[in-house]
């Protein structure tokens, strides 16, 4: 099927498999994939390394000016970089996960990430995942999905992912981190995580990723009256 130059927004809770799904979908449709969470994670790593955030989550307001010089970008294989340095591994650690939500609640951090997403998205043919893509960043996205899954399924998925990456996670800590991030993400003042009224809900607790792709392709076909080639 030939899909028009649209924007697909995937929002939802932590560890619902948004990024694995969005990456696969982008590959199938020949779309660009943009991981907004990776940008928040990149800002968090930068803030931690440059000591703009304290262990008790106090944020030095000098971070705002420092962001002007932060060269955060994606390579064509989706890896995240600061300048010449690939930070893909560092941004996925529990250390970054433990401070990303307070950082992402700061309005000037959100403005920084939103501007970057707009710059990278260009004229469309892009699929993005995050918390507020369909509500705030691209409210006119043609297809919006709100992903959800049972909390225990999500915690187990994230735990398995960290083990695969060679970390040594504790399941209870992973569960607690997801709970806290979901809470902060849903209750912050600036663009909290919420379902856009025109977003389709996808509960993937008992779905495989290929079932998800088939489901969303069905939505796209229906919306644009497309047929298989
Ligand atoms: O992969 P996971 O679902 O755990 O999270 P992520 O997409 O990498 O996002 C990490 C964190 O960034 C989230 O918990 C949010 O605090 C923040 N975030 C956000 O506030 N808005 C977005 N559009 C994307 C991420």
Summarize the structure.
The strands form two sheets. The protein has a five-stranded parallel sheet, sandwiched between helices.
Give an account of the 3D structure.
This protein has one domain: 3-Layer(aba) Sandwich (Rossmann fold). The model has no long low-confidence stretch (mean pLDDT 95). The strands form two sheets. The protein has a five-stranded parallel sheet with strand order 2-6-1-7-8, sandwiched between helices. It has helices spanning 18-29, 36-49, 63-67, 94-104, 107-121, 133-137, 151-164, 171-187, 209-224; strands spanning 7-12, 32-35, 72-74, 80-82, 85-86, 126-130, 143-148, 200-203. A hairpin with a 5-residue loop joins strand 3 (72-74) and strand 4. The protein is an alpha/beta fold. The radius of gyration is 17 Å and the shape is globular. It is 48% helix and 14% strand. Residues 14-15, 18-19, 36-37, 40-41, 100-101, 104, 130-133, 181, 185 line the site of cytidine-5'-diphosphate (CDP).
